[in-house]
């Protein structure tokens, strides 16, 4: 409605540099994209609900309620081609996608803890950015100091360039990093085992950057392990659990 009012009141500016038409057109495109996503992805999932979807929706609602977040009412959609994903806008009624097998195999259910992280990121974004952003800034400062201590000018410049590129990528990945940490801190070993197994199977390049918004697989594993250490759970226990889980899957 605000955009419609501004479009109705629009008059071309004498100076093209001051013309608001490009901004209005950009906002109109944004509204159109949101509407298209609602029509083709969100609305069909909301309308095509089944007893399985309703059951998992109630399960997810209970998880939020146990954490003291009673205002979130998740809508689960299991009968679709997506793996675990979340459309968390609005965060009060997030659409959470998962494969139907979670109804019959509880092993992947802990992966929902990563998806709840996206909802919390929408609710508490400023707090996430304040804490994770400060940690990121300290890391970047340390890398820059290390680069500045290099005596070779060529090496110094190359390291500065690497830090600059990594910094841009790291801030882009900040939300996914936060969600992995939420998953590990809330879901504990069950989340870490499910994440490791689920990501090891399809990944052929665990040490390379394959998706711009996600860290490499080995980095995500280190993040989850750090979450377990924060909970006071020994790394050796986690390794034994993962090994046992892999061996069990191989037998099947």
Topology summary:
Blueprint: H1 2-8, H2 21-47, H3 51-66, E1 75-77, E2 85-87, E3 95-97, H4 112-123, H5 125-148, H6 153-172, H7 174-200, H8 217-230, H9 235-251
Parallel strand pairs: 1-3
Antiparallel strand pairs: 2-3
Helix pairs in contact: 4-7, 5-6, 7-8, 7-9
Task: Provide key terms for this protein.
flat; 65% helix; 4% strand; 9 helices; single chain; mainly alpha; three-stranded mixed sheet; disordered C terminus; 252 residues
Structural overview:
- The chain has a domain at 1-47.
- The chain contains nine helices and three strands, in the order H-H-H-E-E-E-H-H-H-H-H-H.
- It has helices spanning 2-8, 21-47, 51-66, 112-123, 125-148, 153-172, 174-200, 217-230, 235-251, and strands at 75-77, 85-87, 95-97.
- The radius of gyration is 22 Å and the shape is flat.
How many beta strands in the DSSP annotation? 3
Tell me the strand order in the biggest sheet.
1-3-2
Number of helices, counting only DSSP H or I runs of 4 residues or more: 9
Poorly predicted ranges: 244-252
Whole-Å distance between the termini?
A: 57 Å
Determine the fraction of residues in helical runs and give it as a percent range: 55-70%
Estimated radius of gyration? 22 Å
Shape: flat
Percentage of residues in DSSP E strands: under 5%
The helix/strand series, from N terminus to C terminus, equals: HHHEEEHHHHHH
Major sheet attributes: 3 strands, mixed
**Which structural category fits the helices and strands?**
mainly alpha
Mean pLDDT, as a whole number? 83
